[in-house]
Amino acid sequence: MDDAGGTAGVAAGVVSGGTADGAAGGEFAAAQELAAALLPRIPEMAAETVARLTAAIPAYRLLPDSVLGGDLVANTEAVLKLFFTTVAEGRAPTEAELAAPVAWGAERARDGVPLEAVLRVYPLGARRAWELAAAGPDPVADPYALVTGLLAFLGEVMPKVAEAYLREQADLDWEQREHGRNLAGVLLAGRPARRAAERYGRTLAERYEVLVLRLPEAPGGATNRILRALRSELDGNPEVLATFKGEGGVLLVPLAPPGPLGALAPPGPDGATRRLLGRLDTAAELRCTAAAAVAEDHGSIPQAQAEASEVLSLAEDLGRPPGLYRLADLAVEYQLVQPGPARDALARVLTPLDDQPHLIATLREFIAAGYRRAEAAEALTVHRNTLTYRLGRIRLLTGHDATDPTGARHLAAALTAYGAARRTGP
Fold first, then answer.
1. Are 129 and 45 in contact (CB under 8 A)?
2. Which of 260-274, 283-297, 353-367 shows the lowest per-residue confidence on average (mean pLDDT)?
3. Is 243 helix (H, G, I), strand (E, B) or coil?
4. Strand, coil or helix: 128
5. What is the pLDDT of residues 309-346, one digit of tens each?
6. Euclidean distance between CA atoms 85 and 396, whole angstroms
7. Which of these, 7, 228, 45, lies nearest to 130 by C-alpha position?
8. Among 91, 84, 96, residue whose Cα is nearest residue 5
9. Under 8 Å between Cβ of 129 and 38
């Protein structure tokens, strides 16, 4: 059975109480007469439906008057006319007839109207049709005959409108994501981005905090799920410019401008970055590791990215737990890893351990455990006696005792310099 036949058959069956006999045909004919009688009242019904819509749904009140008083009313009239015409003719709407209402649903996505608000216009219009059929100065006969047609029509139109809306919304999300990625790439490369932002209809902030993000390790294909979750969260924050590559990404988070009368901006970020990272952690269901640096203008964004990248690598080399780090959090360690004679001299302290990586790992875990033997041994999954033996070997080969406060500080600094030298080279 095709759609038209199915809708007409259901209409006849419902109106007659479930039997598609001659009486049902008569009742359905009444529905056709009812629909034809209401066709002249379509402009009145459309105007009232739009008025109810704007009163009940705040999203519609944000639309321009040209849309509310023009397109929206005209679209509602056309949908009502299509409904009454198909009921009067005893058939379902064709794909060609549904093309316009479906396209209008997609337009509301571009207008930023939520899907729930887009779909509510249909039951509101149906309700008004029922009210006009059942009441008024000259009520029409047998308004119940209209119910079947209403339900059949809504069942045809609403799923298709929702599908078109969601498809358009997905395209818009992708487009906005690409715009943000392109703008982020331009700014991170140190090139002017204002003209590109104007083309995309975007407004750039004067100050950004550059957030370099490392996605948490996850088994199997969970990394792709995490990346999708992060992108979905960022789609709700279009002012944040983001670009992802591999298992990491760079985000440009807008910051408030400096205070009035030339007053300096408060030191550090305004909390937007930390709040955003918290939402990303929630979306990923795992904690991310990230580092951030403030760029006071667009020209300093590449430098801020370099600083944040260095801080992130340093936090990972030091075995710091997931979280957000800034230069102030690792200032001493950051200074130690800067290329120069002092870093090289410190790195050479651990050169005797080059061919014994298990001793490097032991030293790293011992420092990470706060120099507590039991915790370090547990982290290394070795006996405490084995740990004690390894610490003795480190003392013998380097000349510094990790269990002595002075030696511990020296070895901790040497380990930081050693890791940086291996990572970046001389």
1. yes
2. 260-274
3. strand
4. helix
5. 989 988 888 778 888 999 999 888 888 888 888 888 98
6. 95
7. 45
8. 91
9. yes
3-state SS, residue 213: strand
CB 251 within 8 A of CB 240: yes
Q: Which two tokens stand for residue 42?
A: 């379509």
Average pLDDT over residues 162-173: 78
Strand order in the sheet with 207-214: 241-245, 248-255, 207-214, 289-295, 323-325
Give bridge partners of residue 241 from the DSSP assignment.
252
SS3 assignment, position 400: coil
Torsion of CA 229, 168, 123, 13, to 10 degrees: -100
If one counts every other C-beta atom within 10 angstroms of the C-beta of residue 80, the result is 23
pLDDT tens digits, residue range 108-132? 777 777 788 778 878 877 777 777 6
Give me the pLDDT at residue 25, please.
52
Helix (H) or strand (E) holding 212: strand 207-214
For 38-47, 140-149, 358-367, which range has the lowest pLDDT when averaged over its residues? 140-149
